[in-house]
Amino acid sequence: MKMATPLLASLLAVSACMTANVCDAATKAKAKPKPLPTYKTSFDCASPQASAEKLICHDAQLAQMDLELNRLYLLALTDEHSVPRPDKVEIDQQFWVDTRNQCDSGPQAKPCVIRSYAERAHQLRQGSAIARTKDPSRLTEGPVTFRCAGLNAPVAATFFMTEPGVVYLKWSKTSITLDQVPDTAGTLYRGKDVRGSYSFWQTGYETIFQAPGTGSMSCTAEPVG
Fold first, then answer.
1. How many CB atoms lie within 10 A of CB 175?
2. Of the candidates 51, 61, 75, 180, which lies 20 to 30 Å from 110 by C-alpha distance?
3. For residue 190, how many other CB atoms are within 10 A of its CB?
4. What is the C-alpha separation between 70 and 50, in angstroms, rounded?
5. Long-range contacts at 37-40 (CB < 8 A, ≥ 24 apart)
6. Which pLDDT band holds residue 22 (cuts at 50, 70, 90)?
7. Beta-carbon contacts of residue 224 (< 8 Å; ≥ 6 apart)
8. Residue pLDDT, tens place only, 153-212
9. Span 62-70, mean pLDDT?
10. In contact, 126 and 156? CB cutoff 8 Å
């Protein structure tokens, strides 16, 4: 076997080094995560002030909820008959923003933010007839009052038509936010809290609500107006 000359050995070493560097650079390029998309929100995503705001900026569903909530808030500010009055609505909104921003990072951050938006949308729509106007661009409906067999108190439901959808349910001293899940027969929302699991299922003619400690309850929507 012929031995490589010093010059050939040097060239081979340089070639191997270059190949290794190219491969290493390619591996690093593939491993580098793609930047998350940034969505339009009611606040400046160039300088988010809290972990919750950073999450909203990069999540399509939360960004939709944010824009819709801001739309409801601006409408409520124009409603002299809102409950509470517009000056108190403004104070409450700032308090709500501070509360929303307490949803920290981690696996429970998004559910926390969703609950915050759903509850605030319910409050604004409940208190202002102007906020409930039938704007074609709206992503919320309600509150709709349901009477459920076996439940003494009426259930108020406010819907977020985002992707996926969300429903906020409130009755007596209890409230729950449920997320829409795939269902071939109707619109199904599910969720749980410390008491157990809930479901709210709707078809064109039927609404079924199930809460911890109850069976499936048939519900009827009360007329609006």
1. 16
2. 75
3. 15
4. 18
5. 39/63, 40/67
6. low
7. 144
8. 999 999 999 999 999 999 999 999 999 999 999 999 999 999 999 999 999 889 999 999
9. 98
10. yes
